[in-house]
Write a sequence for this structure.
């Protein structure tokens, strides 16, 4: 059980010529499940590998349980890691794979046997203990990799995109298994993924990374409802948030945003943050699930209805993804409806300003809390 | 398409079958037949049964000596070539500077022909031994170790390339997993790396074994003049060509019998070695 602390950590390659992590500071609490998420090349795996000791820290300080580990070998950090490729030893049986680290620690055979069988029973891999990894399916290999980490009873569990090689169904199954494992083991988990659904469903806290920088580090709910900038807003949520250029206008004491000839009243709670943006262009962000189809009735002041052509309509079961254009921006609405919306059809879409976000056009930072 | 192939396949395989028969199968079978005869030329042979084989083991002084020397030479070469080649391959896969340069340098001796190599090493070794007033033919052990040095020098580069390919084939994550599991360097080498390069070890052991066992031109060029350092292939050659006179047909028959024994030994050893090492390979 351990906390992890990054203090102005720098990571560079090629003798300092390429810096992938310019200055990273954040803390992972004891027993917390933290997910590092971001696009390819954002530095999330490098960050995880620095915790593991597989990458040197070029600058700054890295602590595990208040102990500086910059120069401590991976084997002495009391961590266990699950790799994307599972990294099982192909010439050893499942049993030997799981027992290897314990054997190296000169643990008595009986104790090793108990631990291996304990982990195998939790992960339902008991029937495969004598098989070699080559004779297992992807899901079974993944469970063996988890088992190999579990038997160590480490302070920190590191998982590097462990589900990315599995099919969608198995991924969902393993996702809940890992979450349950975390609850059961009561250990610190650091999990790397580029899949925001994995991040949202599993994490206590998520660090959204981009270009070696943490853009926001918060709970899944906060990331969704209060994204710090356009990057986080666009990354979290599927389909991604729509961004529309608009102008802030004041009529008397009331603020509006105008886009594509439509006016939308800004609720007073948000208006105070936008006061300094009067007559300036800002970015309106609205999630696809917050756009609904207007089928008639009264329109509240904070709402506006636009008429748009459904360029593409994708049926996904109980919902339809409608792609439409606002100005030059392609937007998407996720509409719950029983009726079939056809591509090319004209639809009336209702935007609710209470669920909208506003971003500074220059800095892309969120304007106030929406 | 499939039907036509079925109908005409004999036409397509005929050139290969003919070439194989003319260049390999017929000479091989004729060779086995001739080992039971006394002959001067292929078409003037006299059937003698097992006489040649009995003579090889009972009356020939050089054969058993050559056989023993070949076994010793093969054993020493397999160990030295593979240990050194694997060690160099390990070093050259660590991402050190100048790796590409050294890979080329170590491989270059393999491009030089055996006879040329034999003469070069003969000059080098005799140049050194000359300081002490002896030469490579003076003492059989000089010739033996000279041959070992030459073999190592020639084969290490080739084997190194195969080992490098094998080592590079091990995913980096496996080594990282071992580091996290707490494996020491030696434990990682013997417990992870070596078992995972078993396919390369099988190939390299096979190549070193067969190349050492049938070594001829280097042996001829380096120490062809010394009877005590003739390996099997050179001994067979000498049995054929170092004799003249009335008993030439007997020597030819005996040389042919030695060649058949040589073939059987080489095939048996290679077969056993392949079975043993490939059993240790990882089956995916």
């Amino acid at each position: 059980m351990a906390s992890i602390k990054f203090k102005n950590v720098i990571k560079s390659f090629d003798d300092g010529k390429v810096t992938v992590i310019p200055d990273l500071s954040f803390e992972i609490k004891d027993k917390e499940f933290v997910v590092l998420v971001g696009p390819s090349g954002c530095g999330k795996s490098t960050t995880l590998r620095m915790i593991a000791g597989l990458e040197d820290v070029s600058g700054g300080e890295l602590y595990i349980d208040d102990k500086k580990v910059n120069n401590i070998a991976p084997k002495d950090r009391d961590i266990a890691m699950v790799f994307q490729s599972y990294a099982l030893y192909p010439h050893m049986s499942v049993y030997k794979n799981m027992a290897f680290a314990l054997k190296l620690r000169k643990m008595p055979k009986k104790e090793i046997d108990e631990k291996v069988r304990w982990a195998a029973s939790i992960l339902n891999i008991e029937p495969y203990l004598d098989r070699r990894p080559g004779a297992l399916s992807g899901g079974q290999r993944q469970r063996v990799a988890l088992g190999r980490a579990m038997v160590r009873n480490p302070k920190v569990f590191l998982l590097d995109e462990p589900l990315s090689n599995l099919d969608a169904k198995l991924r969902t199954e393993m996702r809940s298994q890992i979450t349950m494992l975390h609850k059961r083991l009561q250990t610190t988990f650091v999990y790397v993924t580029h899949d925001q659904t994995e991040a949202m469903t599993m994490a206590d806290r998520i660090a959204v990374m981009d270009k070696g920088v943490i853009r926001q580090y918060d709970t899944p709910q906060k990331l969704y409802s209060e994204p710090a900038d356009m990057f986080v807003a666009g990354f979290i949520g599927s389909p991604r948030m729509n961004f529309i250029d608009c102008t802030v206008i004041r009529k008397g004491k009331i603020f509006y945003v105008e886009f594509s000839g439509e006016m939308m009243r800004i609720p007073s709670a948000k208006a105070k943050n936008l006061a300094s943006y009067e007559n300036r262009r800002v970015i309106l962000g609205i999630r696809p699930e917050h756009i609904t189809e207007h089928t008639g009735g009264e329109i509240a002041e904070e709402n506006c209805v636009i008429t748009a052509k459904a360029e593409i309509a994708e049926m996904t079961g109980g919902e339809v993804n409608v792609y439409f254009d606002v100005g030059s921006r392609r937007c998407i609405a996720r509409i719950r409806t029983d009726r079939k919306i056809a591509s090319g059809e004209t639809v009336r879409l209702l935007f609710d300003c209470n669920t909208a976000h506003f971003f500074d056009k220059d800095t892309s930072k969120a304007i106030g809390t929406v | 398409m499939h039907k036509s192939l079925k109908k005409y396949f004999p036409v397509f395989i005929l050139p290969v079958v003919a070439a194989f028969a003319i260049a390999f199968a017929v000479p091989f079978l004729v060779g086995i037949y001739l080992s039971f005869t006394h002959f001067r030329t292929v078409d003037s042979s006299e059937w003698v049964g097992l006489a040649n084989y009995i003579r090889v083991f009972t009356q020939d002084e050089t054969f058993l000596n050559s056989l023993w020397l070949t076994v010793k030479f093969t054993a020493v070469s397999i160990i030295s070539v593979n240990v050194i080649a694997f060690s160099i391959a390990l070093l050259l896969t660590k991402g050190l500077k100048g790796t590409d340069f050294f890979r080329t340098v170590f491989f270059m001796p393999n491009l030089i022909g055996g006879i040329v190599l034999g003469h070069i090493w003969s000059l080098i070794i005799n140049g050194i031994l000359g300081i002490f007033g002896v030469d490579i033919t003076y003492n059989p052990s000089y010739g033996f170790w000279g041959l070992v040095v030459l073999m190592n020098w020639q084969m290490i580069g080739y084997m190194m390339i195969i080992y490098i390919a094998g080592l590079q084939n091990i995913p980096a994550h496996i080594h990282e997993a071992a580091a996290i599991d707490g494996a020491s360097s030696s434990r990682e080498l013997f417990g992870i790396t070596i078992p995972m390069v078993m396919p390369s070890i099988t190939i390299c052991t096979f190549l070193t074994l067969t190349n050492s066992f049938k070594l001829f031109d280097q042996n001829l060029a380096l120490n062809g003049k010394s009877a005590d350092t003739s390996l099997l292939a050179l001994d067979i050659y000498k049995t054929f060509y170092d004799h003249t006179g009335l008993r030439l047909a007997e020597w030819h028959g005996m040389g042919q019998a030695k060649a058949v024994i040589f073939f059987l030994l080489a095939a048996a050893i290679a077969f056993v070695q392949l079975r043993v090492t490939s059993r240790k390979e990882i089956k995916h």
Remarks:
- The mean pLDDT of chain A is 90.
- Residues 299 and 305 of chain A are 8 Å apart (CA to CA).
- Chain A has two domains: 4-235, 242-360.
- The interface with chain B takes residues 52-54, 73-75, 79-81, 83-85, 87-91, 100-101, 104-105, 132, 134, 148 of chain A (CB under 8 Å).
